[in-house]
User: What shape does this take?
Amino acid sequence: MSNTNRQVKLARRPAPGPLSRDVFSIEDGPIPEPGPGQFRVKIEYISLDPAMRGWVSDGRSYVEPVAIGAVMRGYAAGHVEVSNHPDFKPGDAVQGLFGVQQYAVSDGKRVVKVDTNLAPLQRWVGGLGMPGWTAYFGLLEVGQPKPGETVVVSAAAGAVGSVVAQIAKLKGCRAVGIAGGPEKCRYLLDELGLDAAVDYKAGNLAADLQAACPQGIDVYFENVGGEILDTVLPLMNRFGRIPLCGLISAYNATTPPPGPRNLRSVLTQRLKIQGLIVFDWADRIDEAIRDLGKWYSEGKLKIREDVREGGLDAFPDVLNLLYTGGNHGKLVLKV
Amino acid sequence: MSNTNRQVKLARRPAPGPLSRDVFSIEDGPIPEPGPGQFRVKIEYISLDPAMRGWVSDGRSYVEPVAIGAVMRGYAAGHVEVSNHPDFKPGDAVQGLFGVQQYAVSDGKRVVKVDTNLAPLQRWVGGLGMPGWTAYFGLLEVGQPKPGETVVVSAAAGAVGSVVAQIAKLKGCRAVGIAGGPEKCRYLLDELGLDAAVDYKAGNLAADLQAACPQGIDVYFENVGGEILDTVLPLMNRFGRIPLCGLISAYNATTPPPGPRNLRSVLTQRLKIQGLIVFDWADRIDEAIRDLGKWYSEGKLKIREDVREGGLDAFPDVLNLLYTGGNHGKLVLKV
Assistant: This one.
């Protein structure tokens, strides 16, 4: 173990399109010492999230972009090593926006102490972490599913989508997942117990989706955008809700793809499309952790990570898997 | 005065694109006699509404399409001639979905008795009729404008838009109208007293709109769709609301135009796009009539009709004015 802090920094603003490796620089700095009221975390797992594509880009968004030369923003989990903070002790397992690096210093703000007896540490940057909270508030607060309704989720095998689909089931809905390829679809049916799975790569999305939703669609939880949204819109029932959580199909596009042609359905069926960012429920995260943890401990919520080795040096390459569907389950980098 | 009832009937389903004259047939039938509990109305004014394009087309919508051979659906106003209904007396001025014809028989359901001392009859199919109710509920219930916010309206010189913009002013908002051409823009500023007017035909929509909305946009009341929506989206403030009332730019398109490319703004700014149809507030119409009537009588709500002569024979041609911006104010046909 070296006495340096390896860090992934943002070297330059990326051009539109996939992120090239030279957008990031990997540097070794000194291990930081916590000041008064602070503690140091040794990071073990880093969450790779589609939102990262936005965080490195200029342009209006919900948070400031990562500054050039700054450590890349990222959720991570690890253990407290040294603490001058009354609420955090060495050995505590914690999760927070610690950045893509080996060691971080924190004042404890927005840091969550996690229970590694309930679930292994990696799971707290996955389905029990930010992606799970996003699924929880996005579906329940924005989607407002009612028992007996049909809930469709895109990127249903992904970190957010898989939790959305399972919460929908827990709330008494018909849960239908859209995913790419037979393996992911089998996972949705056999492991997660969804009512139907639709493979968007099979080339027959509109008909397959219609067959999977004989009562139409009441809630469409959107992670993808593009053609999938356009295909879903005409199947939406009156007063349907569309929580807009992600548009991963567009993140690497050099020009934004055309939006949905079928907006007429939004009008005639009185649909609601509503964007959501989990930060808006920052003061209610404990609710999500309580319910997700309970469902998980009861075996009602299945969570799968796709943990990649290779340490921080592998970060730029592993990140790009997200935008090609190359991961299976929540993508996590082991430090 | 003849003793026949001239009627505009739907002769065939139209092809996509502008409505050709042969979509309708104009026929003379017998003057209908009211049965028990019914009354007969002599129609004087017929409302021409963008929604008519949808009513004659097949395909999923919020109401059944007009059947082939049936009288064209339409709001109209006139006076009761003969009545077997306890609540309606000969001479009563009424407004309702009487159809595009000279005489209609009604059971009084969803018929509104109107006060021609407050406003002339033609106004009750305009700003005090369905377009006004749509503006009222769409802005206040879906848009939820707060004092000091910026409200932008497209088709702002139109029947719905002009009322939306004025209600926004009455609620203490900055009201900005988008319209086509300098004459309509002058009307918005000089007659309706809006804070700014933007001419979308001037070729500089994005910059002009930004200049007109120095604090960004909180509510965008959408009547048009297409490029205007795309231009508005990046200017929307966080948690902005977009009541989707019409998509007139698409109604005559042979294929639906691409939707908004800038959906990313919906996500990052947590916008809400919500479709609305005034029928959903059918049991609250008296609220709209009460408030609109009050504002109108106090001189705070200006309403302008574009009344066309020519009778029912002119209906097909006059209707098409709506889709080219050829009208100025609520388009009404005098029977």
Remarks:
- Chain A has a mean pLDDT of 94.
- Residues 4-126+304-334 of chain A form a domain with the Quinone Oxidoreductase; Chain A, domain 1 fold (CATH 3.90.180.10).
- Chain A is about 25% helix and 25% strand.
